[in-house]
TrEMBL record, chain A:
Region annotation Disordered: where it falls in the sequence: 1-22, 542-635
Species lineage: Bacteria, Bacillati, Actinomycetota, Actinomycetes, Pseudonocardiales
Compositionally biased tracts (Pro residues): 1-11, 592-602
GO biological process: cytochrome complex assembly
Protein's name in the database: ResB family protein
From TrEMBL, chain B:
Molecular function terms, GO-annotated: heme binding
Membrane topology: Multi-pass membrane protein
Species of the source: Pseudonocardia dioxanivorans (strain ATCC 55486 / DSM 44775 / JCM 13855 / CB1190)
PANTHER family: CYTOCHROME B_B6 PROTEIN-RELATED, HEME EXPORTER PROTEIN C
Protein name from the UniProt record: Cytochrome c-type biogenesis protein CcsB
Region (Disordered): 59-80
Lineage: Bacteria, Bacillati, Actinomycetota, Actinomycetes, Pseudonocardiales
């Protein structure tokens, strides 16, 4: 992302961006202000600052508990730090990624990016058509250069140069031949435009990625539901079917794909130390199409596992978690029986010690006052593998020796109050007010029962397991994936491809001999062009150079990278040994923006500068120049 | 899944061995700085370690010393130079032992050996040393930097073997996926590379601000350090990007969403942004040599922060450290 303000000062753009002289009309002043703001926003420096802000703004999202991840932790934090938590809450620090300030930063960054890309795109298209720049007058000042006199005339050498630089569409250099005075011919060749293309693809993919993510936030949804095993079913027909549901901004729950899932069985394998090894849920499913066709008897089998979600109807069904649901049967003195089974929640994820409350209402009681006296709740702890003894705790997550430690409460459960209450606990206010009293306490293994004072019997029958499923739908994720891949390809290309130039000047030396002068310049941070230049030189001039060849060891004989096959990419020691002359050093780092060590001579540091001897420079060279001076502004 | 206790024990021993060999290489690198310039017979010193001499000999044949030797005559080397060469040879030995530790761990557990913090840190160090040796192969004159690449490797491996150590064991169901091999391996490679780049940038800043003292005389020139940092980052950053994308793909099938701002994801994003800023700073006037190295160091600090602080202090979905 580079843009005019980082271009060399000679660029006319900067002069335009200066404040307008006084005495202009207000409209022009406003326009100038807008233009300056736009330029400021799209400058590299602004982009850098925005990148830092983005990094800084994301950090609290990792360091502070987030509502989107764990609301309990947020509540805990608020109790622990009552002094600062309200302020943090007001500023959105517990929902960092949905705050206006975070959105402002990334939107500004995207605007900056687009504003920087559009002109760049145009420039790139122009450079694609523009001819490679004229051959610099003094090729010897380039980081890679060679000069040899050969026993061929100019035309013969030129023909060989054309063959050497030609090739198929992909491998050919873009070349232009020019004539200079005195029968001198020059060839300017350029390669590596893919770098710029990769750079553009990368940045455009970033924008596409963001659009894809936004799409998911608008039209996606995510719902969690707990389903008991043993053939219980769940249908994605409405939001009401879920225990919790997070809807996208444009999701009202009326257009969910109405597929259904039946949970038949769940198995978990554990290692001897209690660490889980595998989780498997045997489920059956019916697609929305099956359901709409009325084919509701056939369930297609699927084994749902962590890492293996069920994908159907544009949604995914995940196995998120599991737990136990103890089953109790209450037999009232009049012989009526009720069986209850509801999920209890694990309080310890390693031993699956669980807590819960299974609630009963006495059947046949219609009088409200009597109902308030006769409710029963079985609450307490469940251990899948009990430690035994009076105080029950769990020592292993698998179902080896299940036992419950329960309190039986009788009285007003508060189910008629019209208020929602947790399915895992009894209403504490009813306990506090004495409306709900503990009438028995017992440790039971399956089959055992406890009898209450009025002769009611509460039996612990057995244990079933439950699974927690998540249904997710994100219409943007395929496009996000595609843009992520494009982004990676663009990034790799822009960092790997070297933008490089190669010049040949053929000077007639009389007697049918020609002096061949070569020059090369890689216009990127990465060197490593030396090897390729050396290969071109060798193919054109033969392996044994006479004068001034790169192998002759003279201080200005070769560029930093001509040291042979080992000196390919990382060759940071190059300037130590090779870049002796100021010209070589300047040209080795052809960064017009960077602080060059010492004022370089114009024709040495910038081979694009029109060489008086090279004849006329086409007027459309300006865009080429601009893009060159910015071509390192890339990620 | 059965664990082979014998192989696991050998893996642990190899790990210890690798640490010991790296420490030896570190000292040899240090001697490079104190070694006098008086030439000595190279043979006598090399004879001190049989393994070292063998590797050294191989080095000599396929990597002509002309570039690294400088002004001294080819047959006689200064004591410091000999120490440096031995340090490199010993590092290679350490790397082989280290490789043995990682491979044996994988064989013992019959899974990809990147299942907890201990294995992760070990692999990062391995990647860093490989990266360092590749750099050295391309640019032998950077050798003195080795004295600064190995200490962080040693520190990490020491922490890995003590604080972070975890018994060889299978992994939880969420980690049983081929994406483990793809995502975590690329993260380790990228972290190893970015560690080398970070060390180079730190050295650059030390030398630039005159804090390196007399060491600066033996270190490569600062623009060589800067370029080392840049080139390694330019390789490491796309790998890191790939790793993050692979992580997102994995998260989509394991956790139900490709990106959920889990603390680890958030800091990975922050690190990515910091490295993006580094590359942009390299192309911005006034930042290229002043700001950029600081940003690179900041980027590496973020990676380390993500590795230790987020895994060990902040709870999140990535808490597979095996630290109990």
């Amino acid at each position: 992302m580079t843009s005019p303000p980082t271009a060399p000062p000679k660029s006319p753009v900067v002069a335009e961006g200066a404040p307008p002289p006084p005495g202009q009309s207000p409209i022009r002043r406003v326009l100038a202000f807008l233009r300056n703001t736009w330029r400021g926003l799209t400058s590299m420096r602004t982009a850098l600052i925005l990148l830092f802000l983005l990094a800084l703004a994301a950090l609290p999202g990792a360091l502070l508990p987030q509502n989107s991840l764990n609301q309990q932790l947020v509540e805990q934090y608020k109790t622990d730090y009552p002094a600062i938590a309200p302020t943090l809450d007001r500023l959105g620090f517990f929902d960092v990624f949905s705050t206006p300030w975070f959105a402002a930063i990334y939107l500004l960054l995207m605007i900056s990016l687009v504003g920087c890309l559009l002109p760049r795109n145009l420039d790139f298209l122009r450079t694609l058509r523009a001819a490679p720049v004229a051959t610099p007058r003094n090729l010897g000042r380039l980081p890679h250069h060679a000069a040899v006199t050969v026993d061929e005339d100019t035309d013969a050498v030129l023909a060989r140069v054309r063959t050497l630089l030609g090739g198929n569409r992909l491998t050919a250099w873009r070349t232009v031949e020019r004539d200079e005075t005195g029968g001198v011919r020059t060839v300017s060749a350029e390669k590596g435009h893919l770098r710029e293309a990769g750079n553009l693809v990368f940045h455009l993919s970033l924008v596409g990625l963001l659009v894809g993510i936004a799409l998911g936030k608008l039209f996606g949804y995510e719902g969690q539901v707990i389903v008991l095993t043993g053939g219980n079913q769940f249908c994605n027909s409405s939001i009401l079917g879920y225990d919790s549901f997070r809807a996208g901004l444009r999701v009202d729950g009326t257009e969910l794909a109405p597929f259904c899932v039946q949970v038949n069985d769940f198995t978990a394998d554990y290692l001897p130390n209690g660490q889980p090894d595998t989780y498997r849920a045997q489920i059956g499913y019916q697609t929305a199409e099956d359901v709409e066709a009325g084919d509701t008897s056939n369930w297609k089998p699927y084994e749902l596992q962590v890492n293996h979600p069920l994908r159907l109807d544009g949604a995914r069904v995940y196995l998120l978690g599991h737990g136990y649901a103890p089953q109790f049967t209450v037999t009232w003195p009049d012989g009526q029986q009720r069986t209850g089974v509801i999920q209890w929640r694990p309080v310890d994820q390693t031993t699956f010690l669980s807590e819960g409350a299974t609630k009963f209402e006495r059947p046949g009681v219609t009088d409200p006052a009597q109902r308030q006296d006769s409710g029963l709740a079985v609450t307490g702890l469940f251990a899948p593998t009990s430690s035994g003894g009076d105080v029950v705790t769990s020592i292993y997550p698998d179902l080896r020796n299940p036992e419950v430690a329960i309190d039986v409460m009788r009285g007003d459960l508060g189910l008629d109050d019209g208020r929602g209450q947790s399915i895992f606990t009894v209403d504490q206010s009813k306990v506090d007010s004495g409306a709900l009293k503990q009438v028995a306490r017992a440790n039971l293994t399956p089959g055992q029962s406890v009898t209450l004072d009025d002769g009611t019997q509460v039996r612990f029958d057995s244990v079933t397991s439950w699974v927690s499923l998540q249904v997710s739908h994100d219409p943007g994720q395929e496009s996000v994936l595609i843009f992520a891949i494009l982004l990676l390809l663009g990034l790799g290309t822009s960092l790997a491809v070297k933008r490089r130039r190669f010049w040949v000047r053929l000077v007639p030396a009389g007697d049918g001999r020609t002096e061949v002068r070569l020059g090369g310049l890689a216009r990127t941070d990465q060197a490593g062009y030396g090897e390729e230049f050396e290969r071109l030189r060798a193919e054109l001039l033969g392996t044994a150079p006479d004068s001034g060849g790169p192998d002759s060891g003279g201080p200005d004989s070769s560029g930093p990278d001509s040291g042979g096959p080992d000196s390919d990419a990382p060759d940071p020691d190059a300037p130590v040994t090779d870049a002796t002359g100021p010209a070589a050093r300047d040209a080795a780092v052809p960064d017009p923006d960077g602080p060059a060590p010492g004022p370089p001579e114009p024709d040495a540091a910038d081979p694009d500068a029109p060489d008086p001897a090279a004849g006329t420079v086409p007027p459309d060279r300006r865009p080429t120049d601009t893009s060159d001076s910015t071509d390192r502004g890339e990620t | 899944m059965p664990i082979d206790p014998v192989l696991a024990a050998y893996s642990d021993r190899f790990y210890l061995g690798a640490v010991a060999v790296y420490v030896l290489a570190m000292f040899l690198h240090a001697f490079e700085y104190v070694g006098s310039t008086r030439p000595v017979r190279a043979k006598a010193l090399v004879g001190a370690g049989a393994e070292a001499s063998a590797v050294d000999a191989v080095e000599d044949t396929d990597n002509d010393p002309a570039g690294a030797d400088g002004p001294s005559t080819p047959k006689r080397r200064s004591r410091g130079d000999t120490c440096g060469r031995m340090a490199v040879a010993v590092t290679i030995v350490g790397l082989l032992v280290h490789l043995g530790a990682i491979v044996l761990r994988g064989l013992a557990t019959e899974r990809w050996p990147l299942g907890n913090m201990y294995e992760f840190v070990s692999a990062i160090c391995f990647a860093a040393v490989v990266c360092w040796l590749v750099v050295l192969k391309k640019s032998p004159s950077l050798r003195p930097v080795g004295a600064f690449v190995l200490p962080p490797v040693f520190i990490l491996m020491f922490l890995g073997g003590t604080v972070l150590y975890a018994q060889a064991a299978p992994v939880v169901p969420a980690l049983q996926s081929y994406w483990l091999a793809i995502h975590v391996t690329t993260v380790t490679i990228a972290s190893g590379l970015l560690m080398v780049a970070g060390v180079a940038s730190i050295l650059y800043l030390l030398v630039k601000f005159g804090r390196a003292g007399k060491l600066a005389a033996k270190l490569p020139p600062i623009d060589a350090l800067d370029r080392l940092a840049y080139r390694v980052t330019v390789v490491g950053f796309p790998i890191y990007t790939f790793a993050v994308i692979a992580g997102a793909i994995w998260a989509e099938s394991a956790w139900g969403r490709f990106w959920g701002w889990d603390p680890k994801e958030t800091v990975a994003f922050v690190a990515w942004v910091v490295y993006a800023a580094y590359l942009h700073a390299r192309a911005t006037s006034g930042w290229r040599t002043t700001g950029a190295p600081w940003i690179n160091v900041l980027g590496f600090a973020t990676i380390v922060f993500n590795l230790f602080f987020i895994n060990m202090v902040v709870a999140g979905l990535h808490s597979y450290a095996g630290l109990g």
